[in-house]
Amino acid sequence: MANLIITGGAGFIGANFVRHWRKVSPNDGIVVLDALTYAGNPANIADVPDVSLVEGDICDTALVSQLIADHDVDTIVHFAAESHVDRSITGPDAFVTTNVIGTHSLLKAAKAAWLDKGTGRPHRFHHVSTDEVYGTLELDDPAFSESTPYAPNSPYSASKAGSDHLVRAYHHTYGLETTTSNCSNNYGPYQFPEKLIPLFTLNALSGKNLPIYGDGMNIRDWLHVEDHCIGIELIMRKGRIGETYNVGGGQELPNIEVIKEICRGVDEAFARNPALASVFPDAPAAHGRPSAELMTYVQDRKGHDRRYAIDETKIRSELGYEPSRDFPQGFADTLNWFLDNQDWWRPLVARAALAG
Fold first, then answer.
1. CA dist., res. 178 & res. 169, Å (int)
2. Fewer Cβ atoms within 10 A, N terminus or C terminus of the chain?
3. Can you tell me the distance from the alpha carbon of 168 to that of 131, in angstroms, rounded to the nearest whole number?
4. 108 domain-assigned
5. Domain limits for position 180
6. Nearest Cα to Cα of residue 198 among 341, 40, 308
7. Mind listing the pLDDT tens digit for each residue in 1-10?
8. Closest CA to 304 of 10, 19, 89
């Protein structure tokens, strides 16, 4: 039996991991530490049994230390991060604070509890990072591997790169038992509606424009969040201490193809279920028109990386990882989840509209 702190466990990927870990390890203790900023939502884990949610800041080292002591924690899974590139361009300070200083706060608390007191107990600090730390690829470049040099191009990716280096340093300098995973673009249930797939899905349902950066040919590797959780579990159970593993979905697609798939999926959903027209009367599909008519091209984002691609040979060969979904199936599942869980996302959209 393990006792875990899962930071950012009320956010998108963290909440899915809380759900996954509770399912595969029903007897483990779970404490979720989340600042409950705009993207943290207690509803994401409200129905998960035996989870303690603590509202708090990972920069509060004393709080983290107290939680480790009070709950006899031997494992930290670190998701908490500012993660939206657009927000990092307009407000980078929060990204440095949370992603760099916050990670260092956690590492200090973990070192104090697990190493400085001389217990020698087995422990694990797993750090969840991003493929964006590697920079950008040309079309004919090989995919990112764990040995690809870091070359971050946005304040977000630079702050994540800094946090990765700190985790590595705490292993090599102090002997903290760490692992790191760098993942590709996630999608799936509970994703906050500022990211491409939920944003464009909900825009298509409400008849709002689908704004495409530049020429729409920026390429990403798409990873369903449940496959990501499986990858993290494999790393935590079987991964080598001090190592980094890239986790991808094996679905390298231009943004424009992702957006076309969203439009196709929404149109097909309305064709299968005509009752959706009364629920979403502003959707073009409610009137027999293609959702693609909402597509519009806008000025490209500053510093927009052209291509990301993940070489997941290491995690496949060492740990037996294999994603279970291609993108069409993964998006179909995701669309069905958003159609079935309007009570979850409608308040978030309304709140964003009021804030705007």
1. 10
2. C
3. 16
4. yes
5. 3-186+224-248+305-323
6. 341
7. 899 999 999 9
8. 89
Whether 151 is covered by a domain: the verdict is: yes
* Residue of 45, 22, 21, 23 whose CA lies nearest to 33: 45
**Residue 210's closest CA among 311, 325, 293, 318?**
293
The candidate with the shortest Cα–Cα distance to 279, out of 331, 202, 351, is 202
Tokens 């006792």 correspond to what residue? Answer: 3
The encoded tokens of residue 315 equal 């995690």
70, two tokens: 């009070």
Beta-carbon-side half-sphere exposure of residue 127 (alpha carbons within 13 Å): 31
CATH for 121: 3.40.50.720
| Cα gap 269→132, rounded to integer Å | 33
Provide the number of structural domains found in the chain.
1
How many C-alpha atoms does 166 have within 13 Å on its Cβ side? 25
Asked whether residue 195 is assigned to any structural domain, the reply reads: no
Cα 279 to Cα 198, 247, 274, 276, 283: the distances in Å are 18, 37, 10, 5, 9
Positions marked catalytic: 131-132, 156
pLDDT tens per residue across span 165-194? 999 999 999 999 999 999 999 999 999 998
pTM of the model: 0.95
